[in-house]
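The material for today's practical consists of a large collection of protein records. Backbone structure tokens are a discrete shorthand for how the chain folds in space. An example says more than a description, so a record of this kind follows:
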Amino acid sequence: MPLLFPNRRKFRKDQRGRRTGKAIAGSEVAFGDWGIQALEPAWITAQQIEACRTAIIRALGRGGKVWIRVFPDKPVTKTPAEKRMGGGKGNPEQWVAVVLPGRILFELAGVEQERAREIAELVDHKLPIKTRLRRRLALGGEV
């Protein structure tokens, strides 16, 4: 199971940050025919991304292609249970991708609309946020 995390970082620990506003980058279907779009802000963990990826690949079978459009590059730290106050920030425990509303999480190609809808529903069950299926816009803006 290929767990997702960055190879190198300048600093080991990040501050928590904010999840306000809407996604500007990565909000359009760019590679495939169908995109699974986030409707809420969230931190999506590497394990959740991997679970979605395996669900999509199993549902697609041999035909079709998948693009993962998010990458977990933010470390989330935790202090151990029953540790006394002080002693600094905890060690990185997991990696998350910061997702804003409108962000395309996954893209699919080589599937019909009904099949894409079923796959989007499978992925929706694996994630802590609401998602929707988006179709790629053709040149000229037609659907």
Observations:
- The chain has two helices and seven strands.
